[in-house]
Task: structure prediction
Amino acid sequence: MYKLHNIDGKAKRGELHTVHGVIQTPVFMNVGTAAAIKGAVSTEDLKQVKCQVELSNTYHLHVRPGDGVIRKLGGLHKFMVWDKPILTDSGGFQVFSLTSLRKIKEEGVYFSSHIDGKKIFMGPEESMQIQSNLASTIAMAFDECPPYPATREYMKDSVDRTTRWLVRCKDELNRLNGLDDTINKNQLLFGINQGGTYEDMRIEHAKVISELDLPGYAIGGLAVGESHHEMYRILEAVVPHLPQNKPTYLMGVGTPQNILEAVERGVDFFDCVYPTRNGRHGHVYTNHGKMNMLNAKFELDDRPIEEGCGCPACTTYSRAYIRHLLKAKEMLGMRLCVLHNLYFYNSMMEEIREAIENNRYSDYKAEKLERYNNGN
Result:
């Protein structure tokens, strides 16, 4: 159940009650594709960096180790020793990203595994069955994430098929949640809005899927090549046509600036690989912008990455030491940068929630962007 605590402009402050705990929103979900955050981050670490929701990848876990294996071991929570909410994507994004390895049909998608070339079929029912085996808190509907740019004709066919698939997902998950041997009988289904950069198609699709009265709704198919301006334009168009009393999730986004802009437009769930991917390359986020820890200017710098930061890196280690680790290709350097970045993102979401509660989100956003963009 989703409770709205306050609305400041369009920015929403709420909480989603789940079988695995309460998610305070707006929230950034930390991406653990193969049931682990890349960068040698443990589930104990996740608690230390204020992670509320871990996100894992249905397609990748189906390929390896296999969702049947995870089911036999008691589901994803037991498997990775994490007792808070988990969201699993549907495999739909791989339909987009593994273009050369797949064929889309009405019944579903035929894949070749990116690991060993083995033939895989995934449709709405199969995606729900895999996610039920994983026993995640939130399951995402199986959809097609169309390429950018796409013709209007292609997009219409794709969106219509995504709608038909969503109905099949809902029916199948209801069936699975009613079975005696299902691990998580309270699994929630989020539908996904598609339509590329065609505003009218987005709005019409939002209206259609809203009628299904799902626990939450995502906006997919953005951050796939369009400009930030186009993404914000689509959010302004479509968010008002999704239920305000349900979570609104912008998939795969983004930078701190993207998140601040999207919250102002009514989005309250986010995920992105940026903090972990950039951290593994020595790029760290701070309130004064992004820093490259490999820069020579940090060689003798005994300050933390960011003064006042409470993350495991900043409370213990210097910029000079972290730079040395990265230059020496020691895994600890990568790990410390990832932990810092996740802490930065999760702390920013805390600040966002507090600002909305106090009806000062607009001022907070302006101040945050001013400091972040100008490095002061």
